[in-house]
Amino acid sequence: MFLQHLNPSIKALTIMMLVVLLAFIFEPLTPMLFLIWTISITFIFGKVEWKKYVLYFIPFVIFAFGMLWTSVIFADTPKNQDEIIVLLGMEYPRESVLTALALSIRVLNVAALSLMFIFTTNIVHFILSMMQQLRLPPKIAYAVLAGYRFLPMMRDEIKIIHDAHRVRGVNQAKTIKEKWNNYKRYSIPLLASAIRKAERTAMAMESKGFTGDKNRTFYRQFTIKKTDWLFPLIMLIGFFTALLVS
């Protein structure tokens, strides 16, 4: 649970810094070792369900494999026979294969770092921390929070409209074209409902004195503690250790 209790802003800045550092690595061993380190830290210090983690990680594995495959297939014809790698009976330049492998593993590193942040961070706490530590304007922050809150409501609204059409015998679509026409029919009531919710939210915020002023007080206070600096320290130790080993 260590990762869940970290300051979200420090966690986000650390991950962004690591992504930048990985962009300067063009050999596969360093990102491979750091990928193992990142996944280990995620499961050791964060309460993460491995089944859910694997489910979200699989698309990135497919994308990384596609990048690796296309980079190797379209590599230049090897000129020096001493610097070739034979894969599936075909010869490829060793440098191109290693670069492609490094890029694909880098994609997996970015995915692992992103999933670490997503699975161990509360989005509301992250926005509040950005306002308090990174001076994010409240107008932008609360707009993002409102949008985040509206997404589940929009999904429920679509279901209500869908059921209402079905009761009236309208929603009997079978083909893709008919389903697409139904969704276009949903757009007008969905837009009207979204406008009503936005107006109510704006009126509620104005009635409670929201002006967008940066000098405001917060019910939930976020501070940077000494333990928060352990996370960037641990991740940088892992990165530079992988770099030295490679």
**N-to-C order of helices and strands:** HHHEEHHHHH
Number of strands: 2
Largest sheet: 2 strands, antiparallel
Gyration radius (Cα, Å) is 24 Å
Percent of residues in helical segments?
Answer: 55-70%
Amino- and carboxy-terminal Cα gap: 31 Å
Quickly count the domains.
2
The fraction of residues assigned to DSSP E strands is under 5%
User: Low-confidence parts lasting 5 or more residues at pLDDT below 50?
Assistant: none
Which shape, going by the Cα principal axes? flat
Strand sequence of the main sheet, in spatial order? 1-2
So how many helices? 8
- The helix/strand class is mainly alpha
Mean pLDDT, to the nearest integer, reads 83
Q: What's the layout of helices and strands?
A:
Layout: H1 8-22, H2 29-45, H3 50-73, E1 84-87, E2 90-93, H4 94-119, H5 123-133, H6 138-167, H7 176-207, H8 230-245
Antiparallel strand pairs: 1-2
Transmembrane segments: 12-41, 53-74, 107-128, 229-245
Subcellular location: Membrane
Membrane topology: Multi-pass membrane protein
Report on the structure:
The protein has 246 residues and is mostly helical. The protein has 2 domains: 3-128 and 224-245, no CATH class; 138-207, no CATH class. Helices cover 70% and strands 3% of the residues. Strands 1-2 form a two-stranded antiparallel sheet. A hairpin with a 2-residue loop joins strand 1 and strand 2 (90-93). Helix 1 runs antiparallel to helix 4 (94-119), helix 2 (29-45) packs antiparallel against helix 8 and helix 3 runs antiparallel to helix 4 (94-119). It starts with 7 loop residues before the first helix and ends with a helix. Keywords: Membrane, Transmembrane, Transmembrane helix. It comes from Oceanobacillus longus. This is Energy-coupling factor transporter transmembrane component T family protein. It is found in: Membrane.
